[in-house]
Amino acid sequence: MTSPDFGSHWPLHSFQHFAITECEKSSYIVETGSSFQINGIIKNNFDETGTTYIVIKLAFAENQHAEVLFDSDRDFTNGQKQSLRFEVAQNSERHFSINIPVDRECVLGTLDMRLELWSPGRLRYPAQSLDTVALFYRSPWGNGIDLISPDHLIAKAFFSYSWHSPEHLKWINELAQELALRQIRVIMDRNSVEFGQELTEFMEKAVSIPVIIAICSSSYTKKANDRKTSPSGAGYEASLLSNQILKGRFKGQIIPVIRDNPSKELPDFFNSALYLNMDVEHWKAKPLTDLADKIIKNNHLT
């Protein structure tokens, strides 16, 4: 069966050896004028090394995707499009990470995303000549992204945390999304470090944010207590937080949160500080409400 979308010579079912097997976004709630990342895996099920070209499309769910708001093949520069060309070894996988900008003047609403894998010929031929290229894979529309205006945000907080497992990062992202629904902007290295910016420079600026949430997993606590031998990442952030505490900045402005930490041990520099326990099944109930209230209250105190 031939798909009219991509040319009469290339039936889609003949080229299914490429597929995207995993895909996630850095955030489900995105401010206009900012950006978000798409991370995923391309799988080559063929017995030969092959090359494919990713196309990302965003469209509003409300009008059944009738108008494509963003199309990487249309809106990216030639250099950016070349970076979406991936060679994948036979019967292997290839990870990808793509940064998607969101225009400051973009209409607010829920965007759905579609990913496509094309033959690299699409980079050489105009879009009108789709008979000359092949579509390997097309995802359904989905993975909604809620666009919000930064003008609607009432507070902000910085997350200090440890990258110790995919599950922990997924939970941190979920917590950030829940806070965004409460009009709180979360700043963290995963979605806020600008291209070319040093991570340490970002961290040093971030500790000036009104509220800092230290997500104290067992891994974070260990790195914080060993920060003299762990000079980067969570260890470096912990050194900055320790200095802030020594300067007297603690009451409500630096909030320890327990997660993935069975012993509930805090970094030494927190001493006997009270913490919010989110290492519970129903963390979206009272613990989340308490955290949001503390963030908003202490934003207004600074």
UniProtKB/TrEMBL annotation:
Boundaries of each TIR domain copy? 158-279
GO terms, biological process:
signal transduction
> What residue stretch is flagged as signal peptide?
none
Specify the superkingdom: Bacteria
Xref: Gene3D superfamilies:
Toll/interleukin-1 receptor homology (TIR) domain
Question: What is the name of the protein in this document?
Answer: TIR domain-containing protein
Source organism (scientific name): Flavobacterium zepuense
